[in-house]
Amino acid sequence: MNFKRLDRRYLHLLLIAVTVFPLLKPMGLPISIGVHSRTLYDYIQHLPPGSVVLNVFDWGPAQIPDAGVGAMAITQHLLSLPVKIVAFSQEVSAVMMYEYTMSRIKIPPDKKYGTDFVYFGFIAGLETALAAIAKDVHATFVKDYYGTPVEQIPMMDKIRTVKDFALVVETTNTGTHVDGFLRQWKSPYGTPIAINIGAVMVPTYLPYYPGQVLAVIAGARGGSEYELLIKQPGPGVASLDAVSTSHLLVIIFIAIGNIQYFIEKRKRREER
Amino acid sequence: MADASLVWLSAIFTIMVLSFLYKENPFYRFAEYTVIGAATGYWTVMAAKNIVDAGITPLVAGSYVLLIPAIFSVLMFSRYTKRYAWLSRYSVALMVGIGIGLSVRTYIHAQFTEQIVATMLPVVGVPWYTAINNLISIIIVVSTVLFFIFTREPKGGFKVITQIGRIGMMFFFGATFGTTVTTRMIYLIGRLQFLLFEWLKLSG
Predict the structure, then answer these.
(1) To probe the interface with B, which of A187, A202, A240, A243 has the most B CB atoms within 10 Å?
(2) Which residues pair with A215 in a beta bridge?
(3) What is the ipTM score, two decimals?
(4) Residue B2: is its pLDDT beyond 80?
(5) Helix, strand, or coil here: A65?
């Protein structure tokens, strides 16, 4: 059989089949907890009460099943602890992901907007804005997303500069956002930074661990581990069986493609 | 009711996009153009909101210093006229200058010095598997850097070292390709989860 002439639509059909099946009938393949998820979980778990965490939503709708899994699990974890969350976005499309996240996770009844968590929406300027926030939070976060001036938000009273933040959690699928925090927060001020990034970015940003980033939460896999750590398995955990079967199919077809290539090469050599 | 109709709308558009897997068709095109239109509208509104919140409102309230960036912003629009297009260069120069100034200030430390420090890993006094990992890391970093030395012809021992660097880069490209496949698969799985569980309400 010549696979080169195989209609690719059969592959698409097969791929959807091997993906749908484990979603409907989960196989429960084991998921081990990696060092990055464990490190970030422990770090957040041991934050002193009243610590302020900058939770940056820089992911769009496409990343819901990828970096979004970790973003939701980490936000859920932060809300379960006596820490304060300041959130904002450097991406316009990420604004709707804050609302998506808050509508999907369980906000404890004792947690109040403005007292325990706040969202400042889209802040333009990327690295320039990060440098400005580090120096003067109130000058950059003038109003929250819902239009309340920063001076009227109770929890913002004591949050003035980068020094008031115990941790930054940056969820993104764009390297620019991570680079900005490394250059404007980590390097000059030493603020601990954890990155929750799309799987595609992992090879690029893994070299920054452990020197410059606290942990690299790797897409759906890292997010699923975090779901297990907070004992709230969600869509991330449910997707991992399908990830495994779809990858297996890809590996099989890469192997078939290579075998076909070498057979054809041999044939050509023999014909000569 | 509103939620249900949104789920249906989302499901229909997901299927329209996935129909491309069969072949190019008008439903896919319609979904594609709709996304572009909706995204452009969303971006425009958000950008306008940002200008009002961060610029106009504080300016009206008395922060007259904001007139300076406001003037530079207006100058950007001079690009639309041939005669005054040169004025926009002042705004671009300002943005480029500030951007480079800010990043260069800490770039050397964050992404050069710190990366060198991160490569200086111990190979003794650590568990054997850590020592092997560290040794591989050191060899690959050094040989990859040497690969980009073009002033010396790769011959003999130097050629061997640069080839090791090349193999190291191939590992990186392979890992990047692998994680790209993972990401694409996850996107597909995310949409299938939505169709199966939120739209069709099947149980997994």
Answers:
(1) A187
(2) A194
(3) 0.88
(4) no
(5) coil
pLDDT of residue A224: 94
Which of these, A24, A58, A56, A30, lies nearest to A175 by C-alpha position? A58
- Please identify among residues 104-133 of chain B the ones whose CB lies closer than 8 Å to any CB of chain A: 105-107, 109-111, 114-115, 117-118
Q: State the residue range of the domain holding B133.
A: 123-204
Find the closest chain B residue to A19 by CA distance. B189
Task: Kindly state whether residues A143 and A257 are assigned to the same domain.
Answer: no
What average pLDDT does this structure show over B140-147?
Answer: 93
Query: Which chain B positions have a beta carbon within 8 Å of A212's beta carbon?
Result: 110, 114, 118
Residues in B closer than 8 angstroms to A24, CB to CB, are 196, 202, 204
A177-199 in b/e burial notation, b at 16+ Cβ within 10 A? bbbbbbbbbbbeeebbbbbbbbb
User: What domain count does chain B have?
Assistant: 1
pTM of the model: 0.89
CATH number for the domain including A165?
Answer: 3.40.50
Q: Is residue A113 part of a domain?
A: yes
**What's the confidence (pLDDT) of residue B1?**
53
Residues 24-53 of B with CB under 8 A from A: 39, 42-43, 46-47, 49-50, 53
Chain A contact set for B49 (CB, 8 A): 122
Rounded Cα distance, B188 and B177, in Å: 17
The total of structural domains in chain A comes to: 2
**One domain for residues A93 and A147:** yes
Residues A247 and A231 in one domain: no
- Could you say which residues from 135 to 194 on chain B have a Cβ atom under 8 Å away from some Cβ of chain A? 172, 175-176, 179-183, 185-193
Quick check: B182 and A199 CB within 8 A? yes
Cβ distance A106 to A259 under 8 Å? no
CB-based contact, B96 to chain A, within 8 Å? no
Per-chain mean pLDDT for chain B: 91
For the segment A84-113, the average pLDDT, to the nearest whole number, is: 94
Contact A160, A134 (CB under 8 A): no
CA distance B84 to chain A (A): 26
Q: Are residues A69 and A191 in the same domain?
A: yes
Interval A32-81: pLDDT, tens = 999 999 999 999 999 999 999 999 999 999 899 999 999 999 999 999 99
Task: Tell me the mean pLDDT in the region A246-262.
Answer: 92
Q: Is the Cβ–Cβ distance between A78 and A54 less than 8 Å?
A: no
* CB-CB neighbors (< 8 A) of A127 in chain B: 99, 102-103
**How do residues B50-68 score in pLDDT, each as one tens digit?**
888 888 988 998 989 999 9
Identify whether A30 is part of a domain: no
Q: What is the pLDDT of residues B23-48, one digit of tens each?
A: 999 999 999 999 999 999 999 998 89
CB burial of residue B69 (10 Å; 0-12, 13-18, 19+)? middle
